[in-house]
Amino acid sequence: MTDGDVAAFTHLGSTVRGALSERGFSTPTAPQRLAIPPLAAGQNTLVIAPTGSGKTETAMLPVFDHLVADDGPPEGFGALYVTPLRALNRDMRERLEWWGEYLGLEVDVRHGDTTQYQRGKQAENPPDVLITTPETVQAMLTGERLREALQDVSHVVIDEVHELAASKRGAQLAIGLERLHDLAGEMQRIGLSATVGDPEDVGQFLTGGRPCEIREIDVGSNVDVAVRQPEITEEDKELSGTLMTDASTASHVRLIRDVVADHESTLIFVNTRQTAEALGSRFKELDLPIGVHHGSLSKEARIEVEDRFKTGELDGLLCTSSMELGIDVGRVDHVIQYKSPRQVTRLLQRIGRAGHRQDEVSSGTIVTTRPDDTFEALAIARRAREGEVEPAAIHEGSLDVVANQIPGIVQSRGDTRFREAYDTVTRAYPFRDLPEETLREICSELHRNRIVWFDEGEDRLETTGGTWQYVYANLSMIPDEETYEVHDIASGQQIGTLDERFVVNFAQPGEVFVQRGEMWRIAEIDDEEGKVKVSPIEDPAGEVPSWIGQEIPVPAAVAQEVGEIRAVAQPQLETGADAAAVGRELAHRYPADEYTLTEACDQLEKQIEAEAPMPTADRIVLERQGRTIVLNACFGHTANETLGRVLSALLGQRAGSSVGLETDPYRIELEVPSSIATSDVVEVLEDTDPDHVETIVELGLKNSDALAFRLAQVSAKFGALKRWQGQGSGRISNERLLAALEDTPMYEEAVREVFHEDLDIERASAVLAGIQSGELELVTQRGRTPVGQGGRSSSGKELLAPENADASVIETVRERLQNDRVILLCTHCKDWKVKTKVKRVSDQPECPECGSTRIASLNPWAEEVVQAVRAAEKDEEQERMTERAYRAASLVQSHGKRAVTAMAARGVGPHNAAQIINKLRENEDEFYRDILSKEREYARTQSFWD
């Protein structure tokens, strides 16, 4: 043991040092060596280190030491240990209880499930250390006896503070800590965090702007990451039959299987629950000891799989971000990240779960699937090694959090001067710049909703009959979302639930989604009953899920580095080097094998061979084919989404119709009416004032379901939602809600939240300014390019639908379409109607009533179209539906069953069906291949065309 090792523990008293020996702590871990000295001196400290590196003991040993010092623990609570984990870490609790027992200190837990009896005991005889959650702190601040006990708090430890800093839960806790300060005075604040890019900001968030020592472990130098795209082998071709997928996807499964087999215990991180489910079903097919763990599973299912992994019954655990936080699953010796982790912080948090005992290197493998994915993973791996980490994105000035806290302040203090409430709120770091006038508006809104009484004349806040009820119904800033039951329409059985957010933003009849590792098509949504009726898709190989979960946004810095890699490769390829040679050059800087780098660079080689310009960090390439326009722009998710919305809104105005939009970190893809010329897009980019971006985007948001959904959540925190729902039961319409709450703090907050989480106004404005100043080059290109087409496959889609459909997939599409149901309606007599499967339709359908061959083929849920055709007097919408039915009937009259088959496909109406049918082709497989292509195109743009 070196002098440096000994030095950390010498800052602790003899009682705690004796416990160290008993517990087997002979050598301090790296965070303990760095952080115990300032902590023992009572300084506010932020400790940044990987999960599982001994951070809990780092924080708590000096706290225990202080509590067992000469004076002994206080009568009330001595220390609070606040963790954001909803399921409290059992291992952490057992460890802290051991220390408490040995040192003669009482350690207890209080959270939502704590019994009333146990709560009463804690109020009467407060434990020395209380482990609790941010929400329970809110409840404790309003209890009379608990407030008395809280006056003795001298230490507060906030675990996973990086997670809280970037959320409204954290903003709420920041005000809660200032309310605690008003009770207990100055107290030592200790934050435990994973690696963040702005430690000073997170430190200020923790302390409310007070001095803060930062003690950070250099995680990057202790991380060993390899990026690998698997080479397709003969075994993968055989596996593809078993897994009902293509050989490429089979190679991903095989590589993960092999890496898991090479290690004792492996966490396999994926980016969405859908991918976890899809991969999990593949491993189940192979009967491998790999479990699935994500937030949609029940608590019991999660605990069971955690325990099976901990005991070694499972070799691997497929998990989402739920496993980034400190859930104890025992020893992990390797981490696999399936596909790019999207952000440096996520890679470090995930890989950091492996091999962290006594400062071992954390080893991990990123399994990539295509060039974008590989280049992105390479950039992230390099940035992780160099410690170039993203900031925590603190929620600044969340107005619904303020609205949530004012009733709590008034309930706990009684009559309160407005200025005192304002001082408490603005001492919290996220609200340091809150204007006094804004708080007055919030208090006035709460007064109107009878949550608090606000006497503006005397500047005084008082409780009302509704204050207490509001406080206890709104302890959490996690939105209370309704859930919809999902029922199999055939059996009537419930198969699961869907979040309200999913249903509001994405669910429509005909949409496809994944649940329980299976794919389902939505048949009907009943908002009153809160039910979604679905039908199973027997074989997923020919289907594309139209909703795949919200993607983790790729930051601009990572996307820019991908652009820089392309810029480095371009001159080498232009002077005759091939993809393998460029790959070998990149290997000096990036951690990947030759095959992986060559495969990724092959896309860039094809771009040069096509004599197409290379999109880079400072070159935007605008390419067009037909109605599809793609801007290749390496600015990351949120900036591209913002630019895309600006383009979509302004081009839509010019055309007088909607413009389809899809974005990824490297592309903005637009589906435009044929009246829009390429020069129109260039003109918008070159002439739009960068200062107008925010206004244009906000105008585009005004009538959106996404904003209405956020506004409903925000207004609930103000107590305003039920006032606008009036006397009737059920849901308020989005239009009414948006109209009613415009020009209120609630509307302002809903817009702020959308901007904060989904958009980047500042960078999008800078891109327009760069184009207009010439700092960014803008070039146009006719036709699609290899790089421009590289973003077609994202998230978990290819696990379920290979991009290049092979013979087995074409057969699946054929079978699926032949078994799909359609409504046949005679548009001549309008009496005859039948619902049947496509395979039962004759080659040339005709009406048995009148003998006409003008038979419309409609989707099985299109009863409103039938009613429109039969209506004597029609409104504008019914006229439109009738015209569409007549076009379908004309197509069936000309092409018979072939037209019925094409129109049974998802998103393929008469116009697309005519294109498919009229195309000359060598065999029938090509007919089904073209149908699948149209379905995929529709899945990408559907939400913008409805």
TrEMBL record:
The keyword ATP-binding appears for this protein? yes
**GO function term, MF aspect, one:** ATP binding
| Pfam families per record | DEAD, DEAD_assoc, Helicase_C, WHD_Lhr
Span of domain Helicase C-terminal: 255-400
What biological-process GO terms show up in the record? Answer: DNA repair
Q: Any idea where the Helicase ATP-binding domain is?
A: 36-214
Parts of the chain that traverse the membrane? none
**Which Gene3D superfamilies does its entry note?**
P-loop containing nucleotide triphosphate hydrolases (3.40.50.300)
Output the superkingdom of the source species.
Archaea
What keywords does the record list, in alphabetical order?
A: ATP-binding, DNA damage, DNA repair, DNA-binding, Helicase, Hydrolase, Isomerase, Nucleotide-binding
Q: Which SMART domains would you find in this protein's record?
A: DEXDc, HELICc
Q: Which family does it belong to?
A: Belongs to the Lhr helicase family. Lhr-Core subfamily.
Protein known as: DEAD/H associated domain protein
Q: Which organism is it from?
A: Halopiger xanaduensis (strain DSM 18323 / JCM 14033 / SH-6)
Q: Tell me the organism's taxonomic lineage.
A: Archaea, Methanobacteriati, Methanobacteriota, Stenosarchaea group, Halobacteria
